[in-house]
Please model this.
Amino acid sequence: DGDEEKDADTRRVKYTVTMQTLAGELSFDNMVAIFNKDEEGSYKMEWDSQDIFPNLQNTDKVRVVTTEAERGNIYDRNHVELAREGVASSVGLVPGKLPEDRSGALEQLAALLEISVEKIENALSAGWVRDDTFVPLHTVAKDAMDLKEQLLEIPGVMITDTTVRFYPFGEKAAQLTGYVQNITAEELEERAGQGYNQNSIIGKAGAERVYEEQLRPRDGYSIEILNEQGDVKQTLLEKAPEDGEDVILTVDITLQQYLYQEMEGDEGCAVAMDPESGAVLALVSTPAYDPNDFVMGYTTSAWEAVNTDETQPLYNRWLAAWVPGSSFKPVTAALALTAGTLDPEEDVENDGVSWQLDESWGSYYVTTLEDYPVKNLENALVHSDNIYFAKAAVGLGAEGFAEGLNSLGFGEELPFDFELTASAFGTEGKIASDMDLADSGYGQGKLLVNPLHLSSMYSALVNGGDMVRPYLTEGQETAYWKEGVFTPEASETVLQALYQVVESEEGTAHEAYRSEYRLAGKTGTAELKASQDDTTGTELGWFVGLCTEDTDRPLLITMMIEDVKGRGGSHYVVPKVMAGFDAWMLGKAPEFQAADTGAAADNADNG
Model:
């Protein structure tokens, strides 16, 4: 729209053009001449290049230049790089150097790269390809020397360096860092107007996805008019590139590596954190994948192998919720003490190693591994007595126990950068029977707990009853997710008993005892079986260790390993956790040897 100027045969219309471009909004004023062409008074526009841009001549060209920005790096707490720019090898073809009968060369190349001949042919037939053009086909690791030697024997093959996202610690931090890949058409549509284009790289998993907004680069663009000689005549609009922001995690990659290497070969997860501040120091899931393989692009056989692996290396186990077994007994104790339904000094008598509330339970009994004198709270934790904690839950009552669990954040999403599975109990948050209530008291029944959530619950024992909020990026202040979940007295009583679980020679975690530092802890072996009589079920092994006394490096480690039945139950887990504690508290690198599993426990519930 614009003003109009008239003379006898010509009208000149002033107008303003506004357009949205990659470089931003481009706006300019212009004038167009409209001529009277016939007797009926009709007007027609005489087209000229300057009607597009005022300074554009018919011999000029318009060019959009992209200046690529760099993605931010991911660092650990000591500024060790966890994700950065690296160099790989781009394998491609120069069409003019292919033999006259190229079918054999293409078949050989397709076989080595595990791609189809059709894909190669499609790439070679692109409109921009010339005889001397390098046509990239696949990216391989820089150190894949044997493969590259075979590829270079094929006429026409050329290998050049290319920059890629690189993960120096590979599998050891895979589920933590995640990986990036090219944006899909669907993602591009979802993020329309956010500065992405068809060539953009985007975070697909882990920290790369969670912190995409901070990490992602914003490319720069300039819109230029070139004269007939190809020189820049005018820059119409320019947008400077913006590199992505670096993300610094609270994780200590050395501790992360130690825990991963202790767990390598097992299916499990581990969480390490400062229980006083909430800073997360390690997040480990095993087995794992190499995120560099996603960046390079999986071959067909490699993708099939990782995707069909029964151990599920793509599965992030610390995001999930699991049956906690006896590792939950301290939580039950603290809830009952806080509610005033449990006297820690009372000797809770029981006849033998089995118990049921009444005859309505039929043939169902809660069983424990051993009988022992003076069944008070401390001894019950030292011996991991299922019956004691089943009775403690029943003493709270279904409603009281449910209220206690809800106060701890069950059924809620933990406020953490990663989306964790919420801990849950009962059926839709309700405990249906006394049997379910009793079983939940010692960490069985219909109870599922996320490892990071369990770590936060344990943190309340050293924070006067307040559950710390875990955090993963540097620069955050200590905050509490749930305050006053336990009384300070209840927290201290349970904590002192957990010291005895480690320090007492009869304690189920006595093998974790160290003279150099004081550790509180609790083992747990959770049974996964269809019924009480089922002997084919598997077991999850747990150990939670806690060290805050006389140290400026407080540490809590929660570890869970699947399928420990016949491997010592929770006793298979304890040495692996302690390798992490020794490395952190004493600066000792773990000795990576097969753990002595000891004898398998007869009753896994006793942890």
In short: Residues 386-407 form the longest helix (22 residues).
